[in-house]
Amino acid sequence: MELTNDSVSRFLSSVPKGSFVWGKFDCATFFCLCADFLTGFDYSAIIAGKWETKRQAMKFFLNFNFIEFIDEEFEYSTQTLASCRSGDLCVFKCGEMHTVGLVYDNQVVSVVENLGVTYTPLSEISDEIIKILRIIHG
């Protein structure tokens, strides 16, 4: 599947616009929506019902290595800031946690506590980026 700004835009317009709610619409549930969009597989069952508060989420992710999960679950190519494009996933530091956003038009779209869906220019988080990956579609 070749991703374009238009296809990513259509996906993003389908994402709920509600407020950030731990366990219902947070950074991890947004990642699951993105993974479903990119792969066609619903990853939400892995995390469904695992937390309702930030404290519970932090406890869950102490025992669930998100970076290892991505490495094991997805076939991808690593991208640089200069080579990334709409539809790539960007793993970056967000406060004391890591989060994943979807690259769209030189921005990272993510879901952030107290803000909901945010569009942040890649240049503003370049020092916080852990990896940018492009899912390889079989």
Structure notes:
There is one protein chain. The protein contains six helices and six strands. A hairpin with a 2-residue loop joins β2 (89-94) and β3. The protein has helices at 5-14, 27-39, 44-47, 54-63, 66-73, 122-125; strands at residues 76-79, 89-94, 97-104, 107-112, 116-121, 129-135. The mean pLDDT is 90. By secondary structure, the chain is α+β, with helices and mostly antiparallel strands. The radius of gyration is 14 Å and the shape is globular. 36% of the residues lie in helices and 27% in strands. It has a six-stranded antiparallel beta sheet.
Radius of gyration: 14 Å
Given as residue ranges, the uncertain stretches (5+ residues, pLDDT < 50) are none
What proportion of the residues form beta strands (DSSP E)? 25-35%
Counted by DSSP, the helix tally is 6
How far is the first residue's CA from the last residue's CA? 9 Å
Order of helices and strands: HHHHHEEEEEHE
How confident overall, as mean pLDDT? 90
Overall 3D shape: globular
